[in-house]
Structure formats: structure tokens, C-alpha cells
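re: ur msg from earlier - yeah i can do the zinc ion complex, just paste it... oh wait u already did. ok heres what im feeding in:
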Amino acid sequence: MSDKLTKAITKDGFFKISAVVSTETTEQARKFHNSTPVATAALGRLLTAGLLMGEELKEENAKLTLQVSGNGPLGRVIVCANSHGEVKGYAEHPDADLPLKPNGKLDVGGAVGRGTLSVIKDLCLKEPYIGQVAIQTGEIAEDLAYYFMQSEQVPSVVSLGVLVDRDFSVKCAGGFIIQVMPECDNKSLTRLESSVGELMSMTEMLSNGMSGADIIKYAMHGFDLELLGEREVGYACDCSRERMEKAIISLGRTEIDSIIKEQGEAEIVCSFCNTAYKFNAEQLESMKLIASEKTKS
Ligand SMILES: [Zn+2]
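and the outut:
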């Protein structure tokens, strides 16, 4: 993992800021999914948000899922993150393509379409926390800011950017989230709003070679900052042959039986990293046996 995430707080405690450079993470996703530029941009922005939000999970084994379900050509975009700086994700149709917008930018909003944004936090309690809002623009950052306000009642500034190179590889990716703490006064809030309005875009900051710490200092210029540290983050998939076996077993005896009869073997491809797991008839038979035992008990 070679991407870095930096956190800070203003000394008055009014604002919390995290910034991440997620170029490697996004390029890894693009390689796994062989995605078009617009799909890379959409998934990259959501992966970046996943890294920033995953960092906020306090519990050791907590997990975060971000799901953008729009009616655009990309289909669903899903990102899973944890509190250890790991993230993974995929778009249902990574080959979706759209013409550039009149301003020359990738049409992420058009590729996502309208629908819902869901945030699922599994905090290792009985029930996961689920927040859902309507997609506002499909550009991801605006939708997340809307989510923070509506579902968590935390006014936030969210900036996410992915720049795709001519050869379709990821030139740079990153983002920041500024969250307004409840004790913040109106004067400081107005000051933040006016300074944020004048910032260059995320991809400009990244193109200038800014690190997470640089982005925080730049976005929060004029505020007294305390940097809270930096950590390495990156793309990581935790799929395994054992997990895929469990998934097959959970299909149940009848379903496994029909796979054996119709296909003679099974291949499951991980949606997150495209690793293919193959199971022959003999292996499927033994899984069928486990499935039948489970039904009996
Ligand atoms: Zn995988």
C-alpha cells in the first residue's frame, strides 16, 4: 500500500479534516476491472470516499459499504472499506461509456444517473447502521455531502477527484472531507465557506503534486491546524477459496446438484478483484454433502 491518508483538526476543535491521495488505489481498481475512463472516475471517487470514511470507524472489525444505485449505464457502484486503510470496489458495468461533457470533463453524473446512495456501517453490533439518500447529481462528492447533512446531521465539504490519462491509466486521484463539529460558531463557518469556494479543483491540487498534508493546509489556510497523523492505505481484496466454497454451500443441495448436472463444474469470479475460483464435479459433490448435512441439522 503506497497511498497516504492524513488527518487533522483545527485547534479550536471546530473542524475535522481528512485528505487522501488515492492514485495507486484507483489505478489498481482500473487494472482489475479494465474500466472505461468514466467508470474509473466514478469508482475512483467512491473508493476515495471509502478510504476517508473507513478511517472514521472506531471499532476494530467494523466495515463500511457505500452503494450508489443509479439508473445510468454504470449500474450499481459498490465500495467496501474497513478501519485499517483497506478498500475494494466495483461497478456493475465497468465498460459503460459516455461522451465527455461540453466542458471536456468525464460525465460521471450521467454514467451514475438517478437513484439512491446507501451507506451501511457494520459496527459489529446486532444490526448494521443504514443511511440512504436520493442521488443529487451522481457526481459522488455532492451526493456524499448531502448524505452527511441529511442522515448524520453533519455539515460537510466533500471534494473527490480522479484524473484519467490518455492511455486510460489513472494520472492522479484523491479527496478530502471537512466536517463541521457541533460547537462550531457562525463566524468560523462563514470563513470556511468563503475559503472553500475559492479552492482549485481536487485534480488540480493533485496534478500539482500535493500530498494529503499539503491539501489539508491549503484547504484550511488561515485556520490553526493540528495534524493528527498519516497512514498508508490501499486496495485490498480479502476473497479466498474457502469463502467461495461457503458461498456455494449456501446455495443449498438442490442448486448445487443442478450445477453439477448442467455444467459439471463451477467457476466463481470475485467481483472485487476478478480472481477466478474453479471447482470440479468431485469438489462440488463434497460441498453438496455439506449442504445436505446443514439442511438436516
Ligand atoms: Zn477478490
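cool cool. The chain has two domains: 3-235, 241-296. ping me if u need the other ligands too
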